[in-house]
Specification:
Radius of gyration: 17 Å
Order of helices and strands: HHHHHHHHHHH
Distance between the termini: 43 Å
Oligomer: single chain
Length: 190
């Protein structure tokens, strides 16, 4: 099976498992982080880089994507859920590409990468990140971290560092990547 089929199957599985989230409404924290967040409902560059007074969270990349959703569809949740579903699909594809690159010298690397990406795609732990709109911060952080890793594997340190910064500006927990890759990052920074 060629790589195009692998990608098509990954995307089909993702849509099959999480497609039902498209009909969800806003939930729990969505009100605080979207509907009551001036960085989303009335965005400005300055506003994106100041923690909102209601939630004290600094996630300018995440809030910028939510603000774009707001500009396109206002308080209609469908578009937000569609973006989350597409982001989850992108993260799965990036994971597949990272695994293919890492496992390339091994026999059946594509099969192992595909199986791992399928498991990641359907694992229930991702339900909250995909189904809850504010879970977008996790999807963005994971996606940018995987891009950083892929760029690092292709010896593109400056672009990898830029992707890491975007991950950190999506969700603060992306800082754990620094601990895991600190020797490589220190080499790039010096």
């Amino acid at each position: 099976m060629n790589e195009r089929w692998h990608v098509a199957l990954l995307l089909a599985v993702t849509m099959l498992v999480y497609g039902n989230t498209l009909l969800n409404s806003f939930t729990l924290d969505d009100g605080v982080y979207i509907l009551s967040n001036s960085a989303v409902t009335g965005p400005s560059v300055r506003g994106l880089f100041e923690p909102d007074k209601t939630n004290h969270i600094f996630r300018p990349v995440t809030f910028a994507t939510l603000a774009l959703n707001w500009a396109v569809g206002g308080a209609q949740p469908f578009g937000y859920h569609l973006v989350n579903l597409l982001l989850h699909a992108a993260v799965i594809l990036l994971l597949y590409l990272v695994l293919r690159t890492l496992l390339e010298p091994l026999p059946r690397a594509a099969t192992v990468a595909l199986a791992a990406a399928w498991l990641f795609a359907v694992h229930p732990i991702h339900t909250e990140a995909v189904a809850s709109i504010v879970g977008r911060s996790e999807l963005l952080a994971a996606g940018f971290l995987l891009v950083a890793w892929l760029l690092h594997l292709h010896d593109r340190p400056i672009l990898a560092l830029a992707s890491l910064v975007l991950a950190l500006l999506s969700k603060e927990s992306a800082v754990t990547f620094l601990r895991w890759h600190s020797p490589e990052i220190m080499r790039v920074a010096s």
